[in-house]
Specification:
Length: about 375
Amino acid sequence: MAGLSRNNKILQELVLQPGNNACADCAAPEPDWASYTLGVFVCLNCSGMHRNLPDVSKIKSIRLDYWEDSLVQFMAETGNCAAKAIFEKYVPTSFYRPQHKDCIVLRDQWIRAKYERREFTNNFCLQTYSSELFESVLWKKGRDNKQFLKRIFLLSQKDFTLRYFLKEDSKVPKAIINMKDLNAEFQPEKIGHAHGLQISFQEDEHTRNLFVYHEDGQAIVSFFNAVRATRLAYLQKKHPTLQSNDLIPQLTTCCLKEGYMEKTGPTQREPFKKRWFTLSSMNRKLLYFKSPLDATDLGSVFIGSENHGYSVSESCGRSTRSGRWHWGISMETPDRQFVFMCEQEEERREWMEAFRAVISQPMTPEDYASTVMLLQLKQ
């Protein structure tokens, strides 16, 4: 027992050191577990994924398990920083490094890529994602039905497009999607598949959604990172003076908030209707759909900054013509007032925080261009 407490105390001191004080795989704070074959400190969730790789990684609790002196010495000599210098040496610039809040398939494939397949210990992975063409076969949801059908997707860094084909021998693509406004985001719960991916892009002044998945986690994550690599190539050509690190936040983004709210029309005398809303900080748009898996939005609201007359506040829902929901939100824009209703007070609080996060951000030149386009469409 004395040896147990002494070695555990050493490990608990090691985990406080810079680099070790966050999970080596997802950056979660205060990791309590460690791989004594790899020399890394990891969080509880990532430790479970390491246990799925018994030939590569063996896990112990730094507080509860017995540690031999030799293993403690190995942890002291290695640690997260030294391990990353080996296992993450050649990670491509565009490759997504998952955080602790990301979905399981992203975190699982990141761990497998690093330690099981050792993709980043040589520069072969760099060549894979820098190739001009990247092809993947995915299951895609039909636009007007719930059926998923196999489709061939082709990413091109030659003309910065994503094409998809109905059949393997097809010469003519069903769609050609420009990288300019394309986004990809994992949505396993919405799509109903652990590997579900949502691809969004602009089509005829509306947002078009494609919902896809692949049964193999490695395949869908590889496709996702190929999208990011193609987006980076596009942005580097568009902004040749900017560094790659400045462009990384623009490759793909997660929506700030999604969920159902009720909305009314422009006169606020129309009955409230339940709609699925998605808020994106990337283009400052609040999109609304009839249901979560709709292919095209019914409409959108551009959300500018506070300096341009945008604000959000609570509204008294019970004095409005709402349906079942009474937790109201009032959004003021230069053109009109929008009123939304939430089912729960907590949901209203979350939506208002998300709206304020967008309103507090200064507008970019691209944002100004969007407002000009919206004005032209209204004329």
